[in-house]
Specification:
single chain; about 180 residues; four-stranded antiparallel beta sheet
Length: about 180
């Protein structure tokens, strides 16, 4: 019930800045660096700071395939823990997951139509303007972990990406029986 109430409220600018700050900390922890401070910034500047910081972290990791694989796995794990923490606080019912996914992605400039389980269609993505296809594929580890954590298990599988020329990103999130 908490999730349903939350998703009916507009997310204030300060809360959007806080979301960027949390994401910065996830990346900083994954890559063992200090996160830029964004409190006091407007939400658009904070999101830009996150996009640039995350791109730099992932770009550096991609220089070594072994290191990149290890960091992708760690990023997915940290994102899953974040999704699980949100799940513990909001306790969404199965019927509320799609709305919650859409709500949180909207906070970071991503318009997603979500069906959890089912298909997620990312119609517009702020990050597509600043990420290469390789960075977008790397970032998919975060998406998979976060949505899996919110849902209490499972992983996303991307089938199309805007950064690779598709009109939208498309991912599937299997139900529990399909995932096993």
């Amino acid at each position: 019930m908490r999730a349903a109430l939350l998703t009916r409220l507009p997310l204030p600018g300060a809360a959007r800045t806080a979301v960027s700050a949390v994401l910065l900390e996830v990346f900083a922890g994954t890559f063992g660096v200090e996160a830029p401070r964004v409190f006091g910034m407007g939400p658009d500047r904070a999101l830009y700071a996150f996009r640039e910081f995350s791109a730099a972290c992932m770009d550096e990791a991609l220089s070594s395939p072994v290191y990149a694989a290890r960091k992708r796995e760690e990023l997915e794990g940290r994102a899953r823990a974040l999704g699980e923490a949100v799940r513990r606080v909001l306790r969404p019912g199965d019927g509320e997951l799609a709305g919650l996914v859409s709500y949180f992605y909207a906070a970071i400039g991503i318009d997603v139509v979500a069906h959890v389980p089912g298909a997620l269609t990312f119609r517009r993505c702020y990050f597509a303007g600043g990420y290469t296809p390789a960075l977008c594929a790397f970032m998919s580890a975060f998406d998979s972990g976060f949505v899996g954590g919110l849902a209490g298990g499972g992983s996303l599988r991307f089938e199309a990406r805007i950064t690779e020329g598709a009109p939208c990103c498309v991912a599937t999130f299997p139900d529990r029986e399909e995932a096993e």
